[in-house]
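Comment thread on ticket #2218

A.B. wrote:
> Attaching the input chain for the structure job we discussed in standup.
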Amino acid sequence: MTKVTAADILKDVPITRKTLWLWQKKYHFFPDPEKKVHPGGKGIVGYYPSWVKERCEKIFALQKKGYTVAMIKEILQKEAVEKSSKKVLIVDDEKKFANLLQKFFKKNGYIVEVAYDGLEAGLKAADFLPSILLLDIALPGLNGIDVCKKLKSNQKTKNIHIFAMSGNLSYSENLLLEAGTEKFFKKPVDIAHILKECDELIEKQITMGDSLER
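C.D. wrote:
> Ran it. Output below, let me know if you need it in another format.
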């Protein structure tokens, strides 16, 4: 992982070292630097993760707009929750379609994993722990219904929200609901509509999290 020093940050963010220290120590906007010996043997240097520079740029921009420290903290906290919540696992044996969905959701700020069969879906769901599973029901081998039942019976994965997709209408809505799905999209799907449904669910989760904290 790329590292940056305080000097690297201050080249692009017009603040003083004291301000950087205050943001780090008092407001906890980012972690303490990792101390290492300077490559040229010139004492000890503190190295931050590369994302700290971007965060400092954002904090500075928000302060220029008049945001208080409390307001900035709230914004950064919400972003952190959103980032951890916007995780989607796409499961479909039609690889071109699955990869198309993956690119579309990544473009819209989601962290995305893909599986192409039911067995892989179960393994990835337990490891990746997505907020939402976009699941094709008519999978070869372990079909989508079986995947749903296994995930919902597992303590680790039971809270994943499952959105079903299929062009096979032999699966009734009641059967899908009983298996644990929350929504059903008939193929060919409207990708923009699926994204909207996912966005609304994530926003609801974030809002509920905020209300519980208060």
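A.B. wrote:
> Thanks. Noting for the ticket: The chain has nine helices and eight strands.
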